[in-house]
Amino acid sequence: MLVAVPTAIQVFVWLATLWLGKPKMKLPMLWVMGFLIIFVCGGLTGVMLALVPFNWQVHDTHFVVAHMHYVLVGGMFFPLIAGLYYWLPLFSGRMPSENLGRWGFWLTFLGFNGTFLIMHWTGLLGMPRRIYTYEAGSGWEIFNLLSSISSFVLSAGIAMVLLDIALHFRFGKPAKHNPWNADTLEWANTMPPSAYNFVSLPSVETRHPLWDDPNLPHTMAEGKHSLAVASHGRREMWGTDPITGKVREIIHLPGNSWWPLFAAAALAVVCLSLLTKVYALAGVFVIIAGIFLLRWSWENGAHPKAAPDAGVKPGVPPLHSRTMDGPGLWAMGVFLIANGSFYLSYLFGWFYLWTVSPEWQMPETPPLSLMLMLAAGVAVLAGCVVMERLVRGLRQQRDAGLGAGFYLAAALGALQVGLTGWALWQAELAPTQTSHDAVMLVGLVYALFHGGLAVVLAVLQGLRVGYGYVGAHAPFEPGVVALLWRYNVVTFGLLIAALAVLPRVLGG
Asked: What is the DSSP code (8-state) at residue 218?
């Protein structure tokens, strides 16, 4: 039911966007309209499932299967194809076939609704999900037959879309510049785009830059705007203030690297291992993926591959790695907000089971050592204080003892991890026997993982100071790492209170 509120707001925002724009029923807009219809239907059945008496009747039936497909396919597949058709000319320089595309859309749209709309009815008639056969005479036969026929129509529509996309690379008509008459800057690029995209970056002070200045693509190509020089070997763009939109720094972007591909391949092995229940292999490749990602992060900031020439023209804002602000701070902040919501859900589950569940039993003697946990808390707090002092020094352009400071923070973080691990070892938990021990284990493993990550990042910062990648000349990265340390102090303090202090104060 809570999901329905922001989703309804989203729908009206989309409708307002269409109302204020200039929609034309070309292929991308057809898929957008199909998305709106299907997604709204899926949302309505979601509200129905939120009603407990109704949910009792249709739980684990085809009704739930239909709802999930309407939400997931409507919310992901239709917008994905809409975006694919929309940006395909920019990617390939050719237009898709209007006839093949329309056939693909209508076969997909009708086939999808024929397949899953009927499933709502079979679910109301009591057909369970996750079965492949059933007794004759149940009254479901004709509906499942129609649903099966519609699934073939759906498959034919998707095949038509794939055929259209494949053929357009060879037989598609060359796309004219900005074929959709769009108003956004990506259509000011060449088609297909050049390696560096824009030659120069204009100042945009309107919602519809290409409509208000049709000559903008030509002036950008002629280098009449900002950042027109690329001889330094960096990829860069403007960084602006998120509130005023004024230019604040130059963001230099990552260059070509194999490390993201290696990390993606390792994560693919993780997913396949989890599906096949080879958990040991999944754990190994999680570590390998982490190593690849950390190695990729090494080529960052003042690294020669990231900024081979760190100089900027007089009067131009500095590179973001030479400031104390930049996109990395926002990325870490948003990540920690999402991470914190997960952590608060964990704490809610702990207190919910403790206070409400009739079968939850607290042990007579709390298994977690309060002294070890408090000592670990003091260690992570001391490490955070060290990190804060280092960041404050960098703000004042002081970097004396910077490398030693990072290693000291890492040592304090390692002490926290060691003490927490010792407390976990002494607790002798039985997570497969009691929910209490299972929930406690999750919290401690969470703290160990984040504490270990903070230690690794602090060590890497110390090494980067030694290589000259971090210092008063490039002070950005320590502020990003310090955010994680602050987060660890707060979450570990809450963990001590929830797992070690309150059980002793309140008893069972």
From this structure: H
Helix, strand, or coil (residue 128) = strand
pTM of the model: 0.77
Give the whole-angstrom CA distance, residue 117 versus residue 371.
Answer: 60
Is residue 100 within 8 A of residue 158, CB to CB? The reply is: no
Helix (H, G, I), strand (E, B) or coil at 248: strand
416 touches 451 (CB < 8 A): yes
Q: Give the C-alpha separation, 380 to 236, whole Å.
A: 37
Hey, what are 491's tokens? 């979450």
* Per-residue exposure over 435-473, b if at least 16 CB sit within 10 Å of its own CB, e if not: ebbebbbebbebbbebbbbbbbbbbbbbebbeeebbbee
Going from the C-alpha of 69 to that of each of 2, 45, 427, the distances in angstroms are 20, 11, 45
Domains and CATH numbers, the chain: 4-171 (1.20.210.10), 324-506 (1.20.120.80)
Convert the pLDDT of each residue in 354-378 to its tens digit.
Answer: 888 777 777 888 899 999 999 999 9
Give me the torsion for CA of 257, 260, 266, 270, rounded to 10°. Answer: 180
- End-to-end alpha-carbon separation of the chain, Å? 34
Q: Give the burial string for 216-236 (b: 16+ CB within 10 Å, else e).
A: bbeebeeeeeebeeeeeebeb
How does pLDDT run across 45-89, given as a tens digit for each residue? Answer: 988 988 889 989 899 999 999 999 999 888 899 999 999 999 999
Spatial separation of the C-alpha atoms in residues 33 and 11, rounded to whole Å: 12
CB atoms closer than 10 angstroms to residue 296? 17
Alpha helices by DSSP H, 195-258:
209-212, 216-221
Contact 156, 89 (CB under 8 A): no
Cβ atoms 175, 189 nearer than 8 A: no
Rounded Cα gap, residues 21 and 361, in angstroms: 59
* Residues in CB range of 58: below 8 A, 6 or more apart: 49, 64, 123, 124
Local structure of residue 322 (DSSP, 8 states): G
Q: Quote the tokens at residue 90.
A: 């920019």
